[in-house]
Recover the amino acids of this structure.
């Protein structure tokens, strides 16, 4: 089945979808994005993603392409047309295509934002083998820009980080700045010490994960202790457990850090429990 995608008001077969070579995201990475997961054919945490998108657009002075209700409608329509039961919806908004290359932002009165959405079918997303085994992570220096709270499409360094991890025989990388872990290449990072879940506090240094917000809420509701503070790689190596969260990985246990076994080297009880709660509650609240 040919995938149907959405481009600026139209639902099209993917091979007919076109974006201008002058699009600001193509020339300058001047775009923001969201990834929303789909379970049982329904959207997980749609509201959170829509609110963060609005914030990213506002922070970059970028026009909003359409209302939240219209966005929801487009998400649902793409999931329906493409028959997605488990997978993702990718959304990208760019500052549009002014018809030339110029560092100055185009006038939003004459240059419309570009809005693109497509689905990725991922059967077995929730029942992932990686979640049963846990993943291996390496640490790398965080050399990204200072506004990581804005979900821009500037993903070259995170992409390089994944490649560094692959080369080292690992699955992902945690980035470190001034001695402290910021986050994973495409996820938020956590350690567990005793009964405490520790994760870096929100600031411009990390993306304010939608999964992070939900997982911390569920943890607190389940009477687990949460401490929002920075931690080092050395502290993480000594931790009882480690894990990451994101819209596509949900809660994913980390069992090795820079070739050192974390905890028992198998997914820990806190990460496993949080994954279960997250999946259960998210499925219930899915729209
Ligand atoms: N990445 N930190 C970074 C740098 C991320 O790119 C992501 C998400 C997260 C987790 O955010 P959330 O829980 O809202 O997905 C944290 C998405 C999944 C991606 O780039 O594919």
């Amino acid at each position: 089945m040919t995938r149907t995608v959405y481009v600026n008001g139209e639902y099209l077969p993917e091979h007919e979808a076109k974006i201008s070579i002058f699009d600001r995201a193509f020339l300058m990475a001047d775009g923001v994005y969201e990834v929303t997961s789909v379970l049982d054919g329904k959207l997980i945490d749609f509201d959170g993603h829509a609110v963060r998108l609005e914030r990213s657009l506002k922070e970059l002075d970028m026009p909003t392409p359409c209302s939240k209700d219209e966005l929801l409608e487009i998400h649902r329509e793409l999931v329906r047309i493409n028959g997605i039961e488990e997978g993702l919806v990718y959304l990208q908004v760019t500052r549009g295509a002014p018809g030339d290359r110029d560092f100055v932002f185009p006038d939003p009165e004459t240059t419309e934002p570009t809005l693109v959405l497509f689905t990725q079918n991922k059967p077995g997303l929730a029942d992932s083998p990686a979640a049963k085994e846990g993943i291996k992570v390496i640490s790398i220096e965080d050399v990204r820009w200072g506004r990581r709270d804005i979900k821009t499409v500037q993903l070259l360094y995170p992409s390089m980080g994944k490649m560094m991890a692959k080369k080292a025989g690992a699955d992902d990388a945690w980035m470190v700045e001034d001695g402290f872990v910021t986050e994973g290449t495409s996820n938020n990072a956590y350690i567990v010490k005793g009964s405490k879940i520790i994760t870096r506090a929100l600031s411009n240094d990390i993306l304010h994960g939608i999964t992070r917000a939900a997982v911390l809420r569920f943890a607190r509701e389940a009477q687990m202790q949460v401490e929002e503070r920075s931690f080092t790689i050395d502290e993480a190596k000594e931790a009882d457990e480690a894990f990451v969260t994101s819209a596509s990985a949900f809660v994913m246990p980390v069992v090795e850090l820079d070739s050192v076994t974390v905890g028992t080297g198998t997914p820990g009880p806190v990460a496993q429990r949080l994954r279960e709660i997250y999946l259960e509650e998210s499925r219930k609240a899915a729209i």
User: Anything to note?
Assistant: The radius of gyration is 19 Å. The mean pLDDT is 97. The longest strand covers residues 31-39.
